[in-house]
């Protein structure tokens, strides 16, 4: 196994060197990773980004679009024939139909290549013709992200952490009681193993629905073609010395198999090849779920970012160390659920929430930024009369009833510590405020020729992520 791992690493290094040496003589390629936990809006972000790169009328903060340097944009086959294509046309049709609807969330890895024909700017622009820049967008289920943190854990360490996280969460105490009544040193009984795995999976699903972020292993929630396989039939057990042939020893073996056969290939084949990264975060959803969910999101994002290899993709660095993430954008989604007067507070909370992870990335040499965005704007802003004075609200079409409604989620604090401190202290609820959230449906669109779907700061996000390469 060690020899195979070393051989695999050598092969990948040779492939990376070959790519690096030929890159200066071919069209530049930017591999953009789109990550985020469940319901953060990855599918909508990619769809709207591509649509707004094709029709750039709403992209004034993308400098190459505003200056006219981008002559044209077009889709073409992706370079990896083994990865499903991102269903851009299907999703765009759903979002722009007369009665629009949200597309289904990400359930598998997919990829899409958009190519931009760009006229170089500057003093030498007249001496060279347009060049092509390819952007390969890689999308994958957010539920798989936290699995990257398992690579550095033993089964005993993971079991202890998983049982500790389960305390107080929906279904967690029930599973913990079930696990406490199991003797992990007894001989393996497959029906018992399946029951434990099913109960633990049920707990993860309940916790996710309640707004918690750290619900790993991710494939338990989206198993795909691995459903029912032994590699997904394990669960955390109390720490003990597991004799050969015991339930605990078999769960330990399956945990290591999960890392080796599921997590590591995903990391090596997709995650480790990213140049630029956007991390979508549903901060408003976590705030609405309460202090425990917000602190869980903070911990989850810190663990996720620990798996990145941030740093500058200098020529020699890429030869000897492999590709590294040059830029990471932390984007709080659903900014259209707030009046623009509260967007600075949402951005400040996002920056504070991700401070630990961001500091590590900055230290490693990557450029990082945080902002509030809405990849598809679903609301309009209004000011309504209230007993305490004028109130800034947003109005949109409710997903459940299809009726128009004005919405005020609550005033976010100017100081993020007013939220993060209770979250760290384990408070059950916010002491001086209640924060609500609504599920808005996409609004019917009327677009001018040359305009993409309406958004909030999608152009600014694009400028940070790849504007320098255009």
TrEMBL record:
InterPro entries in UniProt: YcjX-like
Domain of life: Bacteria
Protein name: YcjX family protein
């Amino acid at each position: 196994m060690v020899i195979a791992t070393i051989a695999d690493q050598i092969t990948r290094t040779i492939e990376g060197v070959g790519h690096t040496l030929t890159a200066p003589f071919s069209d530049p390629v930017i591999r953009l990773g789109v990550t985020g936990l469940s319901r953060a809006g990855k599918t909508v972000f990619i769809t709207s980004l591509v649509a707004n790169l094709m029709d750039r009328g709403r992209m004034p903060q993308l400098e190459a679009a505003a200056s006219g340097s981008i002559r044209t944009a077009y889709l073409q086959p992706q370079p990896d024939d083994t990865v499903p294509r991102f269903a851009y046309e299907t999703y765009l049709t759903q979002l722009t139909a007369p009665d629009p609807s949200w597309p289904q969330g990400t359930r598998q890895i997919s990829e899409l290549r958009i190519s931009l024909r760009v006229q170089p700017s500057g003093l030498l622009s007249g001496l060279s013709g347009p060049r092509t820049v390819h952007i390969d967008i890689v999308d994958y289920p957010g539920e798989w992200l936290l699995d990257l943190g398992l690579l550095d854990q033993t089964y005993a360490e993971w079991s202890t952490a998983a049982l500790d996280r389960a305390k107080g969460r929906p279904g967690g105490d029930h599973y913990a009681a079930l696990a406490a009544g199991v003797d992990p040193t007894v001989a393996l009984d497959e029906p018992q193993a399946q029951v434990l795995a099913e109960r633990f999976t049920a707990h993860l699903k309940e916790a996710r629905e309640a707004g918690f972020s750290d619900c790993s292993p991710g494939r338990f929630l989206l198993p795909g073609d691995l459903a029912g396989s032994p590699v997904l039939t394990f669960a955390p057990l109390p720490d003990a010395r597991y004799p050969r042939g015991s339930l605990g020893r078999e769960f330990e073996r399956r945990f290591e198999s999960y890392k080796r056969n599921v997590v590591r290939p995903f990391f090596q084949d997709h995650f480790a090849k990213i140049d630029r990264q956007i991390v979508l975060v549903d901060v408003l959803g976590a705030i609405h779920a309460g202090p425990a969910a917000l602190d869980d999101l903070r911990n989850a994002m810190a663990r996720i970012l620990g798996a990145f290899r941030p740093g500058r993709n200098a020529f020699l660095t890429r030869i000897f160390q492999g590709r590294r993430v040059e830029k990471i954008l932390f984007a709080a989604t659903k900014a259209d659920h707030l009046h623009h007067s509260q967007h600075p507070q949402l951005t400040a909370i996002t920056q504070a929430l991700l401070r630990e992870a961001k500091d590590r990335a900055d230290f490693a040499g990557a450029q990082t930024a945080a902002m509030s965005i809405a990849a598809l704007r679903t609301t309009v802003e209004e000011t309504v009369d209230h007993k305490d004075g004028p109130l800034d609200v947003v109005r949109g079409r409710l997903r459940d009833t299809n009726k128009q409604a004005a919405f005020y989620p609550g005033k976010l604090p100017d100081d993020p510590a007013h939220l993060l401190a209770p979250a760290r202290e384990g408070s059950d609820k916010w002491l001086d405020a209640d924060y609500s959230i609504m599920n808005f449906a996409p609004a019917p669109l009327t677009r001018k020729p040359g305009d993409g779907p309406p958004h909030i700061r999608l152009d600014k996000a694009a400028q940070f992520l790849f504007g320098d390469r255009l």
